[in-house]
């Protein structure tokens, strides 16, 4: 975390992307630094949103000395109070709170309830290990596509948080579920377990599994598990994958792993064609070469292409901003309307596609 904060302070950009920053553990010193950065005028609202998100996920006891600052932000105050309440519950009260949460969210859309509160309950349950692993496995095995509750999704998350290797086959099976949220939760759980068994099970099922979207989600797991088995699986699967979208994900996984063996395969796709609507493999291979200090004759060309695309997207974003006018000025197109909740170009697209905003609605 100190290294992340140091890099942030060295950045000269107002917008810095810190999607996974909340996963880093905090200390009293890093919390103090985060508070100072939140009050700084050097960063835009998107960056401050991610900074506050890191604070939301901190240990409530570490936040106690800063309660005056916390109380100024209603959302932050609510989050911290929720964490405090969960931490002082006994095991039975915590399990009851989990059951009540599941009941209250049944038949609702994801944006109609507090998913973060559900995450906090799961984290506390896994930390205490007060739910029998066999009970988790039974819930996963009893999955019913007609069930309108989020019980299975949160038990999937619990299986990942508890690192239940016995749940791997069941989690792999859920990757093909016809559900907007469940396969994503299964991906996160499998990555969290992160063992060779996850990789081999997925690789064995990759072409044989049922479910239209199984390979779409399965292909997203390999690159996130940093094992030699992941690289071997990707090197085997990519040449056999005929679907351009799935192949693009597999190629990106090789870049995520920093696979020197996979570099020729990725380059062949960059030159021969891939699913540009899904992601930029040019950006992936360029980032891999720069980070790993791998010399490549195409680096200048890739850099030029990325700069041109960035400039095009910046122009397009400016054009879109000019299209929105203040709703208070009826019939007037002279004053642009600025959205206070503006989405950054590298943020997840609010349409829910899973793509970056600049590659989706912001393109």
From TrEMBL:
Q: Which domain of life is it from?
A: Bacteria
What is this protein's name? Zinc-binding protein
